[in-house]
Design goal:
Elements lengths: L1 H58 L2 E6 L11 H17 L6 H4 L4 E6 L4 E7 L5 E9 L11 E3 L3 E7 L3 E10 L2 E5 L12 H4 L11 E3 L1 H10 L5 E5 L41 H59 L1
Parallel strand pairs: 1-6, 2-10, 8-9
Antiparallel strand pairs: 2-3, 3-4, 5-10, 6-7, 7-8
């Protein structure tokens, strides 16, 4: 009887173990299948987003990253040669994906004038007669030695980031002709927190190789609002234009990481958005006070050294006097 009960117990235990193993295998299979489905869906969504992003850029004729060396150099080119280059660039963009730009479809909303003498970019829109006479924006800029000095060109392309000469990057680039672009002040890396702050402080003066440098906000405005085929004219005048010459903030002496960011950059991570000058001014004053205290301490040390030197000199003089007196006494003894 006991043997039958034991056999029955073993059978139940084995059945439970087999059942547990089967349930575990099924559970693992379900989890694995669920994980595979989730992973597949995630990859598909990522691919869809990437495709949508690529399609979006292509539809808007926007390049994500371009090397400036791949663009036609404007060095030593005449105005006629530049216009021919510009026409070829426009045709290339029109033929891309069998799409057309605004060069022939409709009147562009804006007309841009680059005053390379005053270092100002003026944006106009058209009046009731269709003439570009109404000023809309004025941007302080930095042009350079290879900036065109004359001519009217039509915007053929836009680039989110451009790898520039000197191993730096420019953000929100709008091509004008060849390797002449509107863009931000250069960054050391393809990141918004690596700004060349020393170059930023030069805005309003001639500082680039030939491109038109702008604040990030202004470069982004052109990138976002100015359509393809918009005309850009170059000229020189001491008169900055109807809106005057804007100024850009100087940031080389900004504390901490602030100087690595363009103050106008709309990026939510930009520390300038939460910067409170008063607090930083207190910090700077403390630094100045500490320096003054150190100067005072140093002066006290110098004065103490001078006093010690005076004491030492007096001791030396006294020793010399004693030696002289002893010599006189010896001489008197000898004379006697």
């Amino acid at each position: 009887m006991k043997e039958e009960q034991n056999n029955k117990g073993w059978k139940i235990a084995i059945a439970l173990a087999v059942f547990t193993i089967i349930i575990t295998i099924l559970f693992v299979c379900v989890i694995k299948n669920f994980t595979n489905v989730a992973y597949t869906n995630a990859r598909q969504n990522l691919q869809i987003n990437q495709n949508n992003k690529t399609e979006n850029l292509e539809q808007n004729n926007i390049e994500e990253l371009v090397n400036l060396e791949d663009l036609t150099s404007v060095s030593d080119k005449t105005e006629e040669e530049l216009k021919k280059i510009n026409e070829e660039e426009l045709k290339k963009e029109e033929n891309k994906n069998n799409k057309t730009t605004n060069t022939t479809k409709q009147k562009n909303k804006y007309y841009i004038k680059v005053n390379y003498k005053a270092q100002v970019v003026n944006v106009y829109t058209y009046d009731e007669n269709g003439k570009y006479t109404i000023p809309v924006k004025a941007f302080v800029c930095s042009t350079g030695t290879e900036t065109p000095t004359s001519g009217i060109y039509k915007i053929p392309a836009k680039i989110i980031w451009c790898y520039m000469f000197g191993d730096v990057y420019a953000h929100y680039c709008t091509q004008i002709v060849g390797n002449i672009l509107f863009h931000s002040v250069p960054y050391l890396e393809k990141r918004n927190d690596t700004l060349e702050y020393w170059a930023y402080d030069k805005l309003g003066t001639k500082a680039s190789m030939g491109c038109i440098r702008l604040t990030t906000k202004d470069a982004k405005w052109i990138f976002d609002n100015v359509s393809y085929g918009t005309q850009v004219e170059f000229y020189a005048s001491s008169n900055p234009g109807p809106l005057g010459k804007p100024s850009a903030q100087k940031i080389s002496n900004a504390p901490g990481e602030l100087k690595n960011w363009d103050p106008t950059d709309p990026d939510s991570r930009n520390p300038w958005h939460t910067y409170k000058p008063g607090e930083n001014d207190i910090t700077n004053n403390e630094v100045v006070n500490n320096e003054q205290e150190n100067d005072t301490t140093n002066n006290e040390v110098v004065n103490n050294e001078q006093e010690n030197n005076t004491t030492d000199n007096e001791a030396v003089n006294n020793e010399q006097k004693n030696i002289t007196n002893n010599e006189i006494a010896d001489n008197e003894k000898t004379c006697n």
